[in-house]
Amino acid sequence: MSQPDTAAVGSPEDILRRAAAVPPLSGFPPLDDLLRRFDAVASAHPELISSRRAGTSRLGEAIPVYRLTGGQRRHLVVGGVHPNEPIGSWTALHLITQLAQDPDLRQALNASWEIVPCVDPDSYRLNEGWFADPTDRSHYARHFYRPAGDEQVEWTFPFSHKAAYFDRMLPETQALARLIDQTEPELYVPLHNSEMGGVYYYLSRPVPQLYDLLSRLPGHLGLPLHQGEPEAGNLEVLSPGIYATGDSAQAYDWAEDLGLDPHPPGSGGASSTEYARRFGTLGLIAELPQWRHHQADDTRPVAESYADLLTRTGRQLAQLSDVLLSVLSQAEPYLRLDTPFIRGARSFAAGIAQSAEASLARAQQPSSGRLASVAERFGCEDVVRMFRLRYGGMTWRALEAEVQAGVAAVELRRLAARMATHFAEWATEAESLDGAEPIAIADLVGVQYGAILAGAAHCQGLL
Ligand SMILES: [Zn+2]
User: Fold this and answer.
1) SS3 state at 304
2) Rounded distance between C-alpha atoms, residue 280 and residue 276, angstroms
């Protein structure tokens, strides 16, 4: 006989139970399907949910936002801030569905919610080729699209610091800024995900009351908590697997101190979370990998020093950027189309060179003399695999677009064939990685959903 459920709504035990109760999911929804599902939930609960247009994409598509009325606090949840990260599509849909169907949950959290299923519809549609089967990493990379730095909604908020100045907000970014201004949210959750390893989080300010539950969520669903390399060397660790988002000025100063160009051409601006800070908003990001790896939370030391690890993988990144920049410079005289793929390929080829320089500069710091951990070694090596697959795939896709449009000179066709060969090698190398397993999508959604509930419960004083 099952035990009656006695945990108070919004308590840690209740949130863990809800996180583990997401029904099975297959693949990721294409945008038309996602919006149909949102409309279905809204029309089933017209007394609670309304929708309106938040803005317009660069290609002219309406960007809808759904408002669920459920209490005094105001929270904002936004999908598609990085259009290659679709786990949040299911999370946003699950969140609005649960809030609509469960009056106890609505009442306990005492909040009205603004939920944007996808803020960058044009770019999201360019990833739909891998959504039906997201388990094969090579197939994913072959159909992958991530916008150039200054075309990402997440990173195109105004920024001015020392020599950096950015104000070229995309129409989608302006729509999100208006929404933040109108909502003045207490909790803001842009829905991100990572790729390989373990789960980690970002918080815009220290909130010790959240650390225990956020750390327990992945383990509760059988996922590792990421304990290795942070995404950038300047990030402050608040608790294992939980980082402070920091801000762009701090990242600028850190890069400058390392002797790097802190704002190279093509850089974006501030993040949406930084923009929302003006309202005292708590920003919360749950980064979920699509594949788990058992080394992601292994903090035991390896025989290699951290400096040697950074040097070895930094050199591999430099070689990768050399390959991509060389192909692109040979292609430039023949390019006829201005596509998002070629703009992204140029941006990331240069960005990888910058990452390589940062790794090599960090290797010189005295604090890097210690031994690396298993998790750090895995993380640094996997960044190389990830960049080869993602940005090799995008560069190939950029050249192939010219071939398919029928405007490619023979020189461009040969460069496309060369990228195909590189990609095949990198895919074979990545496929030989032992121990990577695709994660059940419901578990990923569960962790992200649980993190949102935790944030909302904290705002309401329940945690
Ligand atoms: Zn992201």
Assistant:
1) strand
2) 7
The domain 301-435 having CATH identifier 1.20.120: the answer here is yes
pTM, entire model: 0.97
**454 CA distance to ligand 1 middle (Å):** 20
CA of 21 to the centre of ligand 1 (A): 25
**Amino acid present at 209:** Q
Buried b (16+ CB within 10 A) or exposed e, 72-83: ebbbbbbbbbbb
Contact 431, 137 (CB under 8 A): yes
How far is the centre of ligand 1, averaged over its atoms, from the C-alpha of 279 (Å)? 22
Closest listed residue to residue 147, CA positions, set 337, 392, 340: 340
Per residue in 185-204, pLDDT tens? Answer: 999 999 999 999 999 999 99
341-392: pLDDT as tens digits: 999 999 999 999 999 999 999 999 999 999 999 999 999 999 999 999 999 9
Residues spanned by CATH 3.40.630.10 within the chain? 12-293+439-459
> CA–CA distance from 369 to each of 239, 240, 372 (Å)?
23, 21, 9
